[in-house]
Write a structure and sequence with these properties.
It comes from Streptomyces lannensis. It holds the Pfam family Response_reg. The protein is of the alpha/beta class and 223 residues long. It has 10 helices and 5 strands, in the order E-H-E-H-E-H-E-H-E-H-H-H-H-H-H. Helix 1 links the parallel strand 1 and strand 2.
Length: 223
């Protein structure tokens, strides 16, 4: 089954470029386009895409609010959102991740990165490069806890090993990298990650990373 993609951007030329890149792939099908967030909501309901390639800054309804409505409670389908941004350090990206985006990508990323990002997000993983994660969260360190505040009660539901895994997820490590760091198998890591998401009521690794910073478990700038 091909990955069904909805393109959302207020610039028709960019949508055309993305469509040309994606339709060259046998496992990806562009099922529709939208020029703003409101159109995106209508198209998601009508077309049931697997992945929404979402611009952030658009008229009528921006990509952050559209993402929140697409991925939030009572959503109409399983669509995942991959945010597109012009700037790699963008406060709106942080808001989009909090709103439920599964990751983000720069608009000028090479074609093969765009294709890979869509495949990764469609498979249920988070598309967020570790270096970008750290730079974004470090940039907005002033809006995050210093680490001196009491940790949320929900954090106490995690085992010691699950806390270790959460910290490594927050650093942007993959399952394979976490497995190597902790000297366990990838299967074990996947199990731990699943438990972390379930216990904390989080949807994916991106939300887990944001939670780790916002709770003070990981401090911006810390190694």
């Amino acid at each position: 089954m091909a990955i069904r993609v909805l393109l959302v951007d207020d610039q028709p030329l960019l949508r055309t470029g993305f469509r040309m890149i994606l339709e060259a792939e046998q496992d990806i099908a562009v099922v529709g386009e939208a020029g703003d967030g409101l159109q995106a909501l209508d198209q998601v309901r009508a077309l049931q895409p697997d992945v929404v390639l979402m611009d952030i800054r658009m008229p009528r309804m921006d990509g952050v609010e559209a993402t929140r409505q697409i991925t939030g409670p009572g959503r109409d389908g399983p669509a995942k959102v991959l945010v597109l941004t012009t700037f790699d350090l963008d406060e709106y990206v942080v808001e989009a991740l909090r709103a439920g985006a599964s990751g983000f990508l720069l608009k000028d990323a090479p074609a093969h990165e765009l294709v890979q990002a869509i495949r990764v997000v469609a498979a249920g993983e988070a598309m967020l490069a570790p270096s970008i994660t750290r730079r974004l969260l470090d940039k907005y360190a002033g809006h995050l806890p210093s680490g001196d505040e009491p940790v949320p009660d929900t954090l106490h539901t995690l085992t010691e090993r699950e806390v270790e895994v959460l910290k490594l997820v927050a650093r942007g490590l993959s399952n394979a990298e976490i497995a190597a760091d902790l000297f366990v198998s990838e299967t074990t890591v996947k199990t731990h990650v699943g438990h972390v998401l379930t216990k904390l009521g989080l949807r994916d690794r991106v939300q887990a990373a944001v939670y780790a910073y916002e709770s003070g478990l990981v401090r911006p700038g810390a190694q």
